[in-house]
Amino acid sequence: MGSRHILVSVVLALAVLAYVLVLAYAPRPLQVSQVVSTTEGEVFLPLPRPISRVSIEEAILLRRSIRDYAEDPVALEHLALILWAAYGITEPRLGFRAVPSAGATYPLEVYVVVGTRGVVSSVGAYLEPGVYKYDAHRHFLKLVKEGDYRRELAEAALGQPWVEEAPVSIVVFAVFERTTRVYGERGRVRYVPMEVGHLGQNVYLVATALGYGCVVVGAFYDDRVKAVVGAGAGEEPMYIIPIGVPARRHYVAFEDVWNYITSKRTGA
Ligand SMILES: Cc1cc2nc3c(=O)[nH]c(=O)nc-3n(C[C@H](O)[C@H](O)[C@H](O)COP(=O)(O)O)c2cc1C
Question: Is residue 115 within 8 Å of 166, Cβ to Cβ?
């Protein structure tokens, strides 16, 4: 075989290899059953592990409410870690979670509204758009409703555009009865809202540490949010938290804070 034939064979082999790689890695719609899952409509999430190299102090410094997002999706592994930080299990022996809870009554339920091409897995496949419910004990998402419900959710949130534009939103509900049956009215007006705040801050900090931006949204029509999400009986909406890659990088240095404090001290 002449050197010309060898060259042609090598070029052909490389072309076939490139085609196979493109087929293997090109993003494509992901059926729920294609993600590590056992039964239809159940998405077993990547297990929680330390990912970010951002210290807790830096995350606090850099946390801001972000309402403008790039087109990029949220990585499934990152969404999984954010959900674990929101309400996941951190003490397996007792079933305790990432946030403190009055009497360990855990009144909150966490849903996720995933937009079209909103969440991408490590092999470049997209999660089917839909509304999912987070199961902390099995660290998985259960499909509640198929479809992209971001517009309806934004309309339920007084038309706040960031709710429609974010690739994914966490929606937090409370079942007040779990806490009020132990603590009465104090559970409703104090303990449950406090717990929602703990959850919201964990979401902010882990999202920030992973390079995402989010905003807690408390202004919405309760009944409309419940209908959009398909919430269960007794579940009352507390927060919508849109999450996405920030359109612009927000940066502040500790030095800026030192300068501010120093100027206040000296009255400069
Ligand atoms: C209880 C609560 C409800 C909020 N509701 C909304 C909301 O409906 N829409 C919104 O864009 N931001 C909302 N925010 C975010 C605040 O506007 C934001 O935290 C504030 O402007 C301070 O900015 P920062 O979070 O960047 O520090 C809410 C914050 C809290 C604590």
Answer: yes
Protein residue with least CA distance to atom 17, ligand 1: 65
Q: What is the pLDDT of residues 50-108, one digit of tens each?
A: 999 999 999 999 999 999 999 999 999 999 999 999 999 999 999 999 999 999 999 99
What is the bridge-based pairing of β-strands 130-135 and 140-146?
Answer: antiparallel
pLDDT of residue 40: 74
Provide CB contacts within 8 A for 10, sequence distance 6+: none
* 64 CA distance to ligand 1 middle (Å): 9
**Residue range 3-19: mean pLDDT, rounded:** 64
Say how far apart CA 45 and CA 196 lie, in whole Å: 23
* Cα–ligand 1 centroid distance for 111 (angstroms): 20
Q: Where are the domains of the chain?
A: 28-266
pLDDT in tens, 201-226: 999 999 999 999 999 999 999 999 99
Q: What is the pTM of this model?
A: 0.88
> Whose C-alpha lies nearest to ligand 1, atom 22?
65
Question: What span, in angstroms and rounded, lies between the C-alpha atoms of 152 and 252?
Answer: 35
Q: What residue owns the CA closest to ligand 1's atom 21?
A: 65
* Ligand 1 touching residue 188 (CB < 6 A): no
For residue 71, the Cα-to-chain-centroid distance in whole angstroms is 15
Does 194 sit in the ligand 1 pocket, CB within 6 Å?
A: no
Q: Which CATH architecture has domain 28-266?
A: 3-Layer(aba) Sandwich (3.40)
Q: 194, 241, 249: which is closest to 79 by C-alpha?
A: 241
Phi and psi for 129 in degrees, rounded to 5?
Answer: -60, 145
